[in-house]
């Protein structure tokens, strides 16, 4: 089974921000323990006395907020790069899916709904490609608990029964699950991937996204895992 951990960056309703990002990391189930363990090791170095209190979230680390206020900017940026590097160095079967919308270009449509439709259908197509190669796998989408939970659950049910613009989701084993990011290093990693993409598109800062950009799902140079409407 492939697990797609998804989180967003940028606020769908904030008029001061031009872009909304939804990003997911697709991880083969046997890889999830290794990645989480590597992230735990980083947390242990940061706070040996209480590593589980260390949470990897892009905006607080970048801005030096709350727990991260005690660290210099260079140290915080290094943490972001090291965590993203764990995914970049993981098994090649692990992929990234990213959807970036300029909110003005899609108005009055809801960026949350449109981006989830894109991510879910592209993940489903990825699993269908594996099936054609005799590697039949089911998928499960996992979100951070958020205000979008009701919207996402309803959309996912519709996609599996009524369909989306490009068909019906056929390779997912269940409707999306929602976890507290405090309990999941992989949700935290998805947060950092989404934030790194937001930094690139909103601020022209590519120092973080460049670390994991090659892991976007692609075939023959075509980036199936990237949706941009800029």
Could you explain how this protein is built, in words?
This protein is of the alpha/beta class and 230 residues long. The protein has helices spanning 29-46, 58-63, 73-88, 103-106, 111-132, 149-161, 185-203, 209-212, and strands at residues 2-9, 19-28, 95-102, 139-144, 177-179, 226-229. A 6-stranded mixed beta sheet has the order 5-4-1-2-3-6, sandwiched between helices. Helix 1 packs antiparallel against helix 3. The radius of gyration is 17 Å and the shape is globular. Pfam families: DUF3800.
What are the SSEs and their pairings?
Elements (H helix, E strand, L loop, with lengths): L1 E8 L9 E10 H18 L11 H6 L9 H16 L6 E8 H4 L4 H22 L6 E6 L4 H13 L15 E3 L5 H19 L5 H4 L13 E4 L1
Parallel strand pairs: 1-4, 3-6, 4-5
Antiparallel strand pairs: 1-2, 2-3
Helix pairs in contact: 1-3, 5-6
Protein name: DUF3800 domain-containing protein
Organism: Arundinibacter roseus
InterPro entries: DUF3800
Judging by the overall fold, what is the CATH architecture?
2-Layer Sandwich
CATH class: Alpha Beta
Order of helices and strands: EEHHHEHHEHEHHE
Q: Distance between the terminal alpha carbons, to the nearest Å? A: 33 Å
Report helical residue fraction: 40-55%
Principal-axes geometry comes out as globular
- SSE class: alpha/beta
Uncertain parts: none
The count of domains is 1
Fill in the CATH topology.
Nucleotidyltransferase, domain 5
Tally of DSSP helical segments = 8
Taken as a percent bin, the fraction of beta residues is 15-25%
Biggest sheet strand order reads 5-4-1-2-3-6
| Average pLDDT number | 91
Protein name: DUF3800 domain-containing protein
InterPro entries: DUF3800
